[in-house]
């Protein structure tokens, strides 16, 4: 097993001694102080947000962990107040839809320097699974400058790896033709779309695909296990979000969690309720600080993602920290009654184990009614699948649920229609309260 290529990249970028975690922490602390100084001078939001944080207030990483968080809602309310460069220096603006009730949209800004740093990370991160003998198909948006597919193609080119950027999966036959004609052996794509493709075009997977990288959303273990089992195909996962500059961390050959982009990010895990740091191995919310961003640095940004740092060294032998696979999002952990939760990750493990299903949507109508809409490629299996799903869900959760399973007539995954939207439990109770 080879060591993660990110180790040498981080050592070279940070100029620390190989294997020295203490020096890496010192580098990150130095960059944090530089970033705080930069945003206090250039960002209207942080001038106010960090107004009471004096030059001598932060003398260690422990001190830093006491300063205020930045929330997604802060960006939604006033995205331009985060901008640290003149607008003419901005080379890409990404607008993300949000769950806000006032129609706010989250806008994120990047300079060319910011985008090139992401290309640099992708270049070395992709070396965890590819080399010059591979041919990669990218099923992610890539038509515009600075999009994730565009950056990934540039990174693969630097490594001498052949790649084709198709965009989000829309036409199965067309994608199959590309795989055959270009002898593709590796796919990078959205988890539920790749699963959909593998279930409807299993023959091309068996003939051609030798490795996968799943990105942009939480990856259920049931999905990974199925792809391993049916196609003997190693499944690498990538963790990132647009706010991070797309890239956050990627798995090595150990497939044991992500090694992080630690030259550009400082990552923490906190208790999502108290905000206090948690111990390694303890699950909490991912929080990050950018260390090298030019247009829009973020300080202690709360992601809403659920994960934990591993308390054991990675089998690949790196000294870098390992972030265990993300387990989903806090917003997809819906409280049914005090201390009792309905979680998307549990629904995923139950529902996606049925290979007849190509996607589903979950709507919580009230505290006792869960309505599921499932898309099947074999509709004759619907009666049996419906019974098994209802029974398993009712047996799994420690509270009573009236489960209604309906058939989606479109026979297409929701994400084929709704692009890069993340899957979620729609909580109608919350929507009614907001009316």
Automatic annotation (TrEMBL):
SUPFAM superfamilies: Acetyl-CoA synthetase-like. Residues 86-288 form the AMP-dependent synthetase/ligase domain. Coiled coil: none annotated. Pfam families: AMP-binding. NCBIfam families: DVU1553_fam_AMP. This is AMP-binding protein.
């Amino acid at each position: 097993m080879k060591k993660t290529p990110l180790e040498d990249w981080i050592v070279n970028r940070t100029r620390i001694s190989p294997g020295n975690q203490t020096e890496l922490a010192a580098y990150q602390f130095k960059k944090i102080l530089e970033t705080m100084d930069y945003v206090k001078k250039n960002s209207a939001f942080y001038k106010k947000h960090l107004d009471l944080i004096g030059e001598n207030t932060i003398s260690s990483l422990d001190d830093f962990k006491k300063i205020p968080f930045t929330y997604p809602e802060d960006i939604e309310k006033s995205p331009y107040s985060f901008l640290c460069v003149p607008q003419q220096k901005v080379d890409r603006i990404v607008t993300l839809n949000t769950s806000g009730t006032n129609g706010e949209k989250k806008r994120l800004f990047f300079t060319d320097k910011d985008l090139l740093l992401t290309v640099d990370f992708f270049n070395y991160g992709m070396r965890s699974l590819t080399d010059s003998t591979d041919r990669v198909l990218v099923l992610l948006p890539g038509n515009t400058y600075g999009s994730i597919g565009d950056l990934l193609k540039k990174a693969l080119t630097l490594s001498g790896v052949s790649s084709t950027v198709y965009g989000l999966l829309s036409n199965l036959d067309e994608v199959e033709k590309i795989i055959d004609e270009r002898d593709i052996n590796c796919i990078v794509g959205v988890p539920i779309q790749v699963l959909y493709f593998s279930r409807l075009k299993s023959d091309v997977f068996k003939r051609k695909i030798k490795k996968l990288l799943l990105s942009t959303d939480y990856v259920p273990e049931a999905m990974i296990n199925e792809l391993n089992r049916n196609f003997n195909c190693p499944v690498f996962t990538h963790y990132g979000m647009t706010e991070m500059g797309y890239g956050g961390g990627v798995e090595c050959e150990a497939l044991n969690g992500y090694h992080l982009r630690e030259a550009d990010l400082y990552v923490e895990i906190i208790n999502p309720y108290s905000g206090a740091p948690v111990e390694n191995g303890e699950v909490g919310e991912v929080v990050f600080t950018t260390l090298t961003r030019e247009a829009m640095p973020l300080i202690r940004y709360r992601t809403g993602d659920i994960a934990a740092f591993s308390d054991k060294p990675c089998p690949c032998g790196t000294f870098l920290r390992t972030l265990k696979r993300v387990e989903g999002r806090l917003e997809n952990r819906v409280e049914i009654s005090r201390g009792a939760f309905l979680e998307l990750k549990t629904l995923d493990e139950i529902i996606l184990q049925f290979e007849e299903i190509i996607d589903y949507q979950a709507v919580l109508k009230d505290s006792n009614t869960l309505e599921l809409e499932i898309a099947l490629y074999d509709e004759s299996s619907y009666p049996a699948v419906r019974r098994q799903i209802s029974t398993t869900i009712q047996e799994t959760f420690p509270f009573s649920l009236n489960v209604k399973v309906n058939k989606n007539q479109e026979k297409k995954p929701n994400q084929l229609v709704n692009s890069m939207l993340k899957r979620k439990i729609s909580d109608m109770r919350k929507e009614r309260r907001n009316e």
